[in-house]
Specification:
Length: about 450
């Protein structure tokens, strides 16, 4: 059996080897411990095999010292307002003034230099920046004003640029054994400039959000208008994206994304418009609210300034059911004076249905109410006296929602509030009464019950 270990010798040998290797790993992890190697001989039936066996040898040494701040020999300057921001479009420029003060008791030479930011997605070209003066000797207790001029070339990429300017080469200690090999020295006398290079979007999106109250089991159609102000066609590719962060985290959505379909052209023509149609089929039995987002996939880099690359339209649909029973309100009268009823439906900022262009019911419907009044003598006769339409109009032109029948907001007038009111009168009587209000095509309403002739002072 040449070359084969016996069973009684082989197993202990490998176990010892594994234990010693584990000890080697553990000891190597301890600072200040060096490892020396010895040999152990294992004899088999067919020969001798020599394996190295690690033997730990303790070599205790002091850890490397970190220099104290006072021993670093750093010259510290004071920089008034050590950061600033600029927003520039390609081809534009701007400049700022930075004051550097020397609080030391000796003259300090300064030689401003641009420091690369390794964590920036966009690299700022030093050629875009000019510092005047290029160098300066700042006397003890003196100061120097530096003008930092930025000029963005016309072909610069849009994005956020971080620029750091070091006025001296004083830097904090590095962990590198050779400080001059540190690729990113931590300079102490620095000024940070954030430059946002941007352009206004070539494609305008209206509206930026769609909000509506919808009924389960019915369909609705909405329109998004894209206007291309440029001289070239712009490609688009709309799709539903996950955007649940705009909704409620603790509730199940009223329906899934597949209830919404999008129909759109492949591009928006130069100096023209295109319509993106959004079709919603609300599943039967749906309840609650849906929050989502359409990314229009607009091939326009300027669309991504605020994190909305491609252009976005937020969606919010509240599923409701037309009530089957009227709202009731009981009251008591102590006189037989006439009773006046007023019911009002209000809508703020055209929040719901503003972008709807069609639905299963044939479009938007005017609100109205069915009222009943039960009194001591049975059902009272209600005489309609007045219907009122009321609105609030702003001249700012800053409305967020397009009117239902228009795809553009008027540049002068913006109607932010509307209301519809119905008023009735009935003969009064002493006793118990119950008012019933059945609303139609109404988001919410309020009511007024007045007892007595106007100006008589009589009441309940």
């Amino acid at each position: 059996m040449n070359g084969i270990f016996t069973k009684t010798r082989t197993v202990p040998g490998y176990r010892s080897m594994l234990i010693l290797l584990l000890a080697l790993i553990l000891v190597a992890a301890v600072p200040g411990v060096a490892i020396a190697m010895t040999e152990e001989v294992f004899v088999g039936t067919g020969g001798v095999i020599t394996l190295p066996v690690p033997t730990p040898v303790m070599v205790v040494g002091d850890p490397p010292e970190v220099p104290d701040m006072q021993e670093m020999n750093l010259t510290i300057l004071r920089i008034d307002q050590n950061w600033n921001t600029m927003e520039l479009m390609p081809g534009e420029g701007d400049e700022i003034t930075v004051t550097v003060k020397n609080p030391n008791n000796e003259t300090v030479p300064t030689n401003p230099m641009v420091v690369e930011d390794p964590y920036s997605n966009y690299i700022f070209d030093e050629a875009w920046l000019t510092i005047t003066p290029a160098s300066a000797e700042i006397e003890a207790e003196g100061e120097e004003e530096f003008t930092i001029a930025v000029a963005i070339p016309g072909d610069a990429d849009l994005g956020h640029y971080n620029v750091k300017i070091a006025f001296t080469d004083d830097a904090k200690p590095t962990l590198y054994p050779e400080p001059h090999l540190d690729p990113y020295p931590s300079y102490v006398n620095t000024f940070r400039l954030n430059v946002e290079v941007w352009k206004p979007p070539v494609v305008q999106v209206l509206p930026s959000r769609i909000r509506d109250r919808v009924e389960s089991g019915k369909w609705y159609k909405y329109a998004i208008t894209l206007t291309n102000t440029g001289d070239h066609d712009i490609n688009i590719d709309p799709e539903i994206v996950v955007a649940r962060q705009y909704g409620r985290y603790d509730t199940v959505p009223a329906f899934e994304d597949d209830a919404i379909t999008i129909d759109a052209p492949s591009s928006v023509p130069a100096n023209g418009t295109a319509t993106v149609s959004v079709h919603l089929d609300v599943p039967a039995g749906a309840k609650g609210r849906y929050d989502g987002e359409i990314n229009l996939g607009i091939d326009d880099p300027s669309m991504g300034r605020w994190g909305d690359e491609g252009g976005t339209v937020r969606l919010r649909f509240e599923v409701w059911e037309q009530p089957t029973e009227p709202f009731t309100k009981a009251f008591v009268t102590a006189t037989d004076s006439p009773i006046t009823l007023r019911v009002e439906s209000s809508q703020n900022s055209k929040r719901f249905g503003a972008c709807r262009i069609d639905d299963e019911d044939g479009g938007a419907k005017d609100p109205y109410f069915d009222l009943t009044l039960e009194g001591p003598n049975g059902t009272a006769t209600l005489l309609p006296t007045r219907i009122t339409y009321q609105g609030s109009v702003s001249l700012s032109g800053m409305g967020k929602y397009a009117p239902p029948d228009e795809m553009a907001i008027d540049e002068v007038y913006n109607e932010g509030y509307t209301s519809y009111t119905e008023e009735f009168t009935a003969d009064g009587a002493i006793g118990n009464w119950e008012l019933g209000i059945f609303p139609h095509y109404v988001e919410d309403f309020k009511y007024v019950i007045a007892i007595g002739d106007a100006g008589t002072g009589s009441g309940v």
